[in-house]
Amino acid sequence: MPELLIRGARVMDPFQGLDEVLDVAISRGRVSEMGKDLPLAGREVVEARGMVLAPGFLDLHTHLREPGREDEETLETGLRAAVRGGYTAVFCMPNTDPPLDRAALVEELVLKAGRLGLADLFPVGCISRGREGRQLAELGLMHASQARVRAFSDDGDGVADAGLMRRALQYVSAFGGVIVSHPEDDSLSRGGQVNEGRASFVLGLRGMPASAEEVMVARDIILAEETGS
């Protein structure tokens, strides 16, 4: 198989401090040489002038909808779209049906993604069982599973119970986990259609005040500082 030469691309790699127009040679699936005006002989050439060549991107917030909402998206369609856009790893949110609140569910997703052979998949587990905000989900078991979950969220719903959020922050700190808060106080935002302000008043639409987000952000900052998470 001849070497591949990507010619004249804008090479951007923050890990190496690179941001310049270069040729990149690839041999046996690995970068073998980078430089300007590399020889063309014996190489399959891809003209990439005006294009960006970079390490694979990482998407921290995707909705792959599997399991339960495959009418909107599937693991395969979502991961295929990711690699077409240059994303080689994605985190998928847990607001599926059923929610990703236990080890068996996140393991199945990771195993299926491995069989597809597209982008790497990192499931985000639920903070609470069923995303209902009452009891902690299987945080430790999800982390110990083959999925190695480290990020947890009740994405789409704020955790109203401050005590539950505090316990979650304490729990995940034991294994370097991260809580991804959905900062929304439902008692302030419930029924809202647009941001509260002049536009909502003129249009006669129920507004959602900025305080609905701000009070939850403030609470979670306090809890994170208190727990060292």
Give me the secondary-structure topology.
Elements: E1 3-13, E2 18-27, E3 30-35, E4 43-47, E5 52-53, E6 57-62, H1 75-84, E7 87-92, H2 103-116, E8 120-123, H3 139-144, E9 151-152, H4 162-173, E10 178-179, H5 186-189, E11 194-195, H6 198-203, E12 207-208, H7 211-227
Parallel strand pairs: 1-4, 1-5, 6-7, 7-8, 9-10, 11-12
Antiparallel strand pairs: 1-2, 2-3
Helix pairs in contact: 4-7
Please explain how this structure is put together:
This protein is α/β, with parallel strands linked by helices. It has two domains: 51 residues, Urease, subunit C, domain 1 (Roll); 126 residues, Metal-dependent hydrolases (TIM Barrel). The protein is built from seven helices and twelve strands. Strands 1, 2, 3, 4 and 5 form a five-stranded mixed β-sheet that branches. Strands 6-7-8 form a three-stranded parallel β-sheet. A hairpin with a 2-residue loop joins strand 2 and strand 3. It is globular. The termini are far apart. The mean pLDDT is 95.
Report, as a whole number of angstroms, the end-to-end distance: 50 Å
**Residues in β-strands, percent:** 25-35%
Write the CATH fold name of the largest domain: TIM Barrel
Q: Would you identify the regions where 5 or more consecutive residues have pLDDT less than 50?
A: none
Question: Which sheet architecture does the biggest sheet show?
Answer: 5 strands, mixed
Can you give the helix content as a percent range?
Answer: 25-40%
